C-alpha cells in the first residue's frame, strides 16, 4: 500500500486507533502486552544501572557512517536516559546530524517526525540506514534546508524502546531528554547553542507535548520556540466520533492500541479484550512497520477483533486517553509557539486546536497561529514549511516572537 496514504490519514488514525480499541471489552485473559523483539545492536540495550542516571544523561555515543541523503553532514547516535509514562527510567536514542559548515554554538533543531511502527527497526535511527524504500526518511529535503543554514538537527526515536505507538506524552518527554543529551555531548559543540523544536501530525504531537511539558519536566532548558503543525489535540474528542466500520488503515488503529498497552500495561489491557483473530493479528504486526501493519488491517474493523464493549466504560482506560490529550493538560508552554493547520482538516478536530490556542493565549504564550487553505491533512504540512523555517530562523536570531492571539 502506498505510504502516502499513511501520512494523509495519520492524524486521524493515530487517535482513531485509541478510540476504536477503547470500544472493545474483556474476554479470556492473555499473557499481557506483546512487546517488540529487542534490537540486537547493543547500543540500544538498557544498562543495568539505568535507575542511577538522571533524565537526559548520556549513556553512550557512536559515530555513524555518513549518509548520502544528508551530504556533508556527520551523523552521531546518542543514547540517553529518559522516563516513560509510568515514571520509570528507560534508555532512548536520538540521531544528531551536524553540517560541516556549522558555526560554533550554531542552532540545534530537534525535529520530531512521524514514526509508524511497532518494531524496533521502524525507529528513525534505523530508518536512516535502511535499504527498504518504504522506510526511508521522506523529510530529507526539508532537513537538508535546515542543515544548509548551519543548523544541527536532532532526530529522536520518540516512541521509546518498546515502540509505544500512540503514546503522545511519552514522545514529549523523550524529545526533551534528547535535547538535554545532545547538548551534553562535547564533540557536538551544542552546549551553548540556541534550541528549537518542530514537527507535524504525529511528530507535531511529540513536539507540542514537549513544549507544554518543558516548564515542569525540563525547566532548565531555554528553548527558543516550537513549531507544531496538524496536531490532534484531543484524543477523547476523536473517540466520540469514531465508528466501527471497516477502514483501509485499520492496521494503524490496531497498532496504536497495542502501543498504548505496551506503555500502560496495567491500565490499558487491550490483549485481554481481543478474540482469537485479534490476537493472531496482534502477533503478526508486533514487530512490523507501516506497510506490514497496513496490510494486516486493510479493510478490517474493531468488531472483527474484539469480544465485547467493556473498556468503553473503564475509568482507567479513559484516563489513559485523557492523559495523552494535550487540550486537557493543564500545563502551558513558556516558549513561543508557531502553530499551523488546515481550517477544514477532515482528519482532526480543528476546534480542539483552537481551544488549546485560546488557553495558551490567555496564559500569555506568544502564539502565532496560521490556518491554511488546504483541503486535507498532509498537504498542509508542505504548505507550512516556508513560514515555519522563517519563524524558526527568527527565533534563533533572538528576534521578538510575533503573536496573533
Describe the structure.
Strands 1-2-3-5-4-6-7-8-9 form a 9-stranded mixed sheet, sandwiched between helices. The chain is built from 13 helices and 9 strands. The chain has helices at 3-22, 124-127, 140-148, 168-184, 202-217, 235-240, 250-263, 276-285, 290-297, 302-305, 315-323, 350-362, 377-397; strands spanning 58-64, 73-83, 89-99, 108-112, 152-156, 195-200, 223-229, 337-342, 367-372.
List the SSEs and their pairings:
Blueprint lengths: L2 H20 L35 E7 L8 E11 L5 E11 L8 E5 L11 H4 L12 H9 L3 E5 L11 H17 L10 E6 L1 H16 L5 E7 L5 H6 L9 H14 L12 H10 L4 H8 L4 H4 L9 H9 L13 E6 L7 H13 L4 E6 L4 H21 L8
Parallel strand pairs: 4-5, 4-6, 6-7, 7-8, 8-9
Antiparallel strand pairs: 1-2, 2-3, 3-5
Helix pairs in contact: 1-7, 4-5, 7-9
The residue ranges in which pLDDT falls below 50 over 5 or more consecutive positions are 1-29
Given helix and strand content, the structural type is alpha/beta
Q: What does the largest sheet look like?
A: 9 strands, mixed
Can you write the helix and strand succession as a string? HEEEEHHEHEHEHHHHHHEHEH
User: DSSP helix count?
Assistant: 13
Amino acid at each position: 500500500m502506498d505510504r502516502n496514504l499513511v501520512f494523509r490519514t495519520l492524524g486521524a488514525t493515530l487517535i482513531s486507533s485509541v478510540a476504536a480499541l477503547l470500544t472493545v471489552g474483556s474476554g479470556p485473559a492473555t499473557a499481557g502486552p506483546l512487546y517488540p523483539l529487542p534490537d540486537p545492536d547493543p547500543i540500544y540495550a538498557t544498562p543495568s544501572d539505568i535507575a542511577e542516571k538522571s533524565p537526559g544523561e548520556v549513556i553512550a555515543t557512536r559515530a555513524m557512517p555518513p549518509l548520502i541523503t544528508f551530504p556533508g553532514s556527520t551523523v552521531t547516535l546518542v543514547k540517553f536516559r529518559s522516563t516513560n509514562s509510568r515514571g520509570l527510567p528507560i534508555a532512548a536514542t536520538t540521531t544528531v546530524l551536524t553540517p560541516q559548515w556549522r558555526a560554533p554554538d550554531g542552532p540545534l533543531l530537534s525535529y520530531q517526525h512521524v514514526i509508524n511502527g511497532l518494531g524496533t527497526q521502524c525507529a528513525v535511527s534505523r530508518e536512516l540506514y535502511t535499504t527498504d524504500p518504504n522506510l526511508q526518511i521522506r523529510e530529507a529535503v526539508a532537513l537538508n534546508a535546515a542543515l544548509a543554514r548551519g543548523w544541527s538537527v536532532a532526530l529522536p526515536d520518540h516512541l521509546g524502546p518498546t515502540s509505544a505507538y500512540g503514546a503522545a506524552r511519552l514522545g514529549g518527554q523523550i524529545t526533551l531528554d534528547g535535547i538535554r543529551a545532545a547538548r551534553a555531548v562535547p564533540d557536538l559543540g551544542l552546549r551553548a547553542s540556541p534550541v528549537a523544536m518542530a514537527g507535524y501530525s504525529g511528530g507535531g504531537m511529540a513536539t507540542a507535548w514537549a513544549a507544554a511539558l518543558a516548564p515542569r519536566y525540563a525547566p532548565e532548558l531555554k528553548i527558543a520556540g516550537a513549531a507544531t503543525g496538524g496536531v490532534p489535540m484531543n484524543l477523547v474528542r476523536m473517540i466520540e466520533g469514531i465508528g466501527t466500520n471497516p477502514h483501509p488503515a485499520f492496521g494503524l488503529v490496531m497498532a496504536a492500541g497495542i502501543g498504548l498497552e505496551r506503555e500502560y500495561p496495567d491500565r490499558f489491557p487491550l490483549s485481554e479484550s481481543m478474540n482469537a483473530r485479534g490476537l493472531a493479528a496482534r502477533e503478526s504486526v508486533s514487530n512490523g512497520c507501516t506497510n506490514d501493519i497496513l496490510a494486516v488491517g486493510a479493510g478490517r474493523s474493531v468488531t472483527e477483533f474484539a469480544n465485547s464493549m467493556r473498556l468503553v466504560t473503564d475509568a482507567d482506560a479513559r484516563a489513559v486517553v485523557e492523559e495523552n490529550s494535550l487540550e486537557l493538560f493543564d500545563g502551558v508552554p513558556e516558549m513561543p509557539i508557531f502553530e499551523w493547520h488546515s481550517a477544514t482538516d477532515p482528519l482532526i478536530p480543528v476546534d480542539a486546536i483552537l481551544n488549546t490556542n485560546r488557553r495558551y493565549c490567555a496564559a500569555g504564550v506568544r502564539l502565532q497561529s496560521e490556518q491554511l487553505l488546504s483541503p486535507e491533512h498532509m498537504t498542509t504540512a508542505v504548505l507550512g514549511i516556508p513560514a515555519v523555517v522563517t519563524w524558526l530562523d527568527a527565533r534563533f536570531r533572538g528576534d521578538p516572537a510575533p503573536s496573533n492571539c
